[in-house]
């Protein structure tokens, strides 16, 4: 027998679910809750196999309640049954510890199947939700940002340094004063733990910076020593 707790702030929804589940062999509704705080209390008290829970509820919402249940009653499998299908809601529920996520438009047999699945330790998502989850995990990871310890402005300065730009030109391009450029460069040296501009350029170019806008000397021109801040 799979024991089920229902949590939804609409009595009509709870009543419909109780009637549905009460007609299915092997399922037993052991309680109802109208808000997240009551859902947590009853989950800890009754220790149902499955808690069918809405997200938007008064007092404590379903996400916060799921997080607390995962901590205080980890054996309870939470199945979200909600009208919210946005990515923020779906992934917040997953991070909180929900094992399943269905939309309220789901067919009755789909709800019953989901309850049995999460009770058996499986994760289950409605068709539309499953596509979003698969799309999220199959998407290529975002490209890594070189030198994450630098601020965005410092990274801009380093990119221009690596491209061979002198301080004066860096200031004009970025709309900042020469003193501010020098301060950024000093900060960059400290964060990258480099001794001078030449070493910073090597590090930056190894990371792919400065290659697009590199300034090369003209024919017959001699290379000037790196400008120091």
UniProtKB/TrEMBL annotation:
The keyword Phosphoprotein applies. It comes from the Bacteria. The modification 4-aspartylphosphate is found at residue 54. Residues 143-208 form the HTH luxR-type domain. GO terms for biological process: phosphorelay signal transduction system; regulation of DNA-templated transcription. One of its GO terms (molecular function) is DNA binding. Residues 3-119 form the Response regulatory domain. Keywords: DNA-binding, Phosphoprotein. This is DNA-binding NarL/FixJ family response regulator. It comes from Nonomuraea rubra.
């Amino acid at each position: 027998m799979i024991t089920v707790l229902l949590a939804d702030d609409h009595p009509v929804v709870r009543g419909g679910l109780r009637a549905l589940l009460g007609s299915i062999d092997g399922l037993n509704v052991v309680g109802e809750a109208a808000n997240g705080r009551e859902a947590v209390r009853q989950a800890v008290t009754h220790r149902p196999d499955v808690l069918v829970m809405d997200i938007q509820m008064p007092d404590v919402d379903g996400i916060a309640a799921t997080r607390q249940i995962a901590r205080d009653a980890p054996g309870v499998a939470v199945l979200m049954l909600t009208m919210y299908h946005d990515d923020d809601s779906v992934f917040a529920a997953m991070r909180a510890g929900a094992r399943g996520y269905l939309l309220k438009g789901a067919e009755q047999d789909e709800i019953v199947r989901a309850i049995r699945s999460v009770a058996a330790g499986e994760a289950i998502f409605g068709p539309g939700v499953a596509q979003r989850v698969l799309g999220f995990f199959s998407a290529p990871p975002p490209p890594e940002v070189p030198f994450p310890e630098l601020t965005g402005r410092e990274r801009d300065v380093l990119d221009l340094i690596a491209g061979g730009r002198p301080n004066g030109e860096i200031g004009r391009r970025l709309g900042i004063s020469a003193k501010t450029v020098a301060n950024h460069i000093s900060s960059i040296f400290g964060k990258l733990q480099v001794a001078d501009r030449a070493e910073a350029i090597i590090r930056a170019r190894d990371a792919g910076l400065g290659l697009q806008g590199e300034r090369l000397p003209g024919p017959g021109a001699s290379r000037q020593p790196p400008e120091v801040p």
